[in-house]
Amino acid sequence: MSFFADPTPYFDQWREQGPALIDSPDGQKTWMISRYDDVVQALSHPGLSSAIVPGGMLNHTDPPEHSQLRKPIARAFSTRRMEALRPRIERITNDLLDAWETEEEVDVIDTFAYPLPITVICELMGVPESDRSEVRTLTSGLMAPDTMVEAYGKFALYLQRLLETKEPGDDVITELRDEPNLVQNLVLLITAGHETTVQLIGNGLLALLRDPVMKQRLIDDPILIPDAVDELLRYDGPLALGVSRIATSDVVIGGVTIPQSSQVTVSLGAANRDRTRYPDPDALQLGRDPHVSFGHGIHYCVGARLARIEGEIAFGTLLRRFPELALAAEPEWREAFIRGLASFRVRPKP
User: What's the per-residue H, E or C state across the chain?
Assistant: First the structure.
């Protein structure tokens, strides 16, 4: 079975090896960091640089440039602003699920998991509704190695045109208009702002349908859903392979020396299944220690609060409105940087 269909055996093998030079599932020769403690150390290590490509994108910069770029973006994604979006996210969620009421079978990805977060991020950023289909195509192209470069170029051109024609409004693009490296960071914010949440919803719902005891527990006690969102992120988060770094000097991680100039992959998914950190890690269990699905340290995800809110509302509303939701067919996994489902068909009602 491929990494994309089930990464768990790969995670187990990587953690057993410890930091080691391997052939990654994406075809790259890389030093794989996979144990929880090693991952936390690596994500904060000054000798492992995020600047693996030029261009000034937030997730590919180091201090002090990173700090200067992050401050206005973090302000634009403040907790207060994200919490104020709850009523709108609830309306979008219910509007999408209204269409399920008369359907015998639906694809979760196409009818719910994609439309919800892409609508939210586009409204927040100030992307016109008429452009959202194009944005979805472009961001999807960024997820695969063979289309990534072309999709990035097209997306950058689209955003440049948008910046030249867009009227100011109460949105993030307007707020960040005078910031440096704006186009590059808009690509990041719009893409990461929905692609990962699509897979949080898809992967998480599949995990719940395969664990009827947990599913029923959340139906009976919805107050547990915020905790469940974090457990679902730990259990099968979208960044299974993880994030890339480059060693700017010889770096010691987990007792192993990684040579200068080496490419390094920090596997968030493997760390989240480390049994030295999480007892019975391959099962859903509420009340776990914090996970690393949003990263750690200075690169901790600026959109984490928004993702959690969307997850809470999505799962809470789905389970309340369709408590007998069931799988209609075996889901299909896509081969992409962000682990998720290409197709996920369910029956909303018996």
Answer: CCCCCCCHHHHHHHHHHCCEEEECCCCCEEEEECCHHHHHHHHHCCCEECCCCCCCCHHHCCCCHHHHHHHHHHHHCCHHHHHCCHHHHHHHHHHHHHCCCCCCCEEHHHHHHCHHHHHHHHHHHCCCHHHHHHHHHHHHHCCCCCCHHHHHHHHHHHHHHHHHHCCCCCCHHHHCCCCCCHHHHHHHHHHHHHHHHHHHHHHHHHHHHCCHHHHHHHHHCHHHHHHHHHHHHHHHCCCCCCEEEEECCCEEECCEEECCCCEEEECHHHHCCCCCCCCCCCCCCCCCCCCCCCCCHHHCCCCHHHHHHHHHHHHHHHHHHCCCCEECCCCEECCCCCCCEEECEEECCC
Q: What is the rounded average pLDDT of the residues 77-88?
A: 97
What would the two tokens of residue 4 be?
């994309």
**What mean pLDDT do residues 196-202 have?**
95
CA separation for the pair 189, 108 (Å, rounded) = 23
From CA 51, how far away is CA 68, in angstroms rounded? 15
What's the pLDDT tens digit per position in 221-253? 999 999 999 999 999 999 988 899 999 999 999
> What tokens does 247 get?
């060693």
Q: What predicted TM-score, i.e. pTM, was given to this entire model?
A: 0.95
Of 165, 114, 174, 166, the closest CA to residue 338 belongs to: 114
Q: Which residues pair with 102 in a beta bridge?
A: none
**pLDDT recorded at residue 143:** 83
Strand-strand pairing, 263-266 and 243-247: antiparallel
Closest Cα partner for 142 from 337, 343, 348, 339? 337
Name the burial class of residue 224, with classes exposed (0-12), middle (13-18) and buried (19+) by CB atoms within 10 angstroms of its CB. middle
* Residue type at 130 in one-letter notation: S
Q: Token pair for residue 29? A: 């020769």
Under the banding of pLDDT at 50, 70 and 90, the label for residue 323 is very high
- pLDDT of residue 20 exceeding 90, the answer is yes
Q: In the structure, what pLDDT confidence band is assigned to residue 1 with cuts at 50, 70 and 90?
A: low
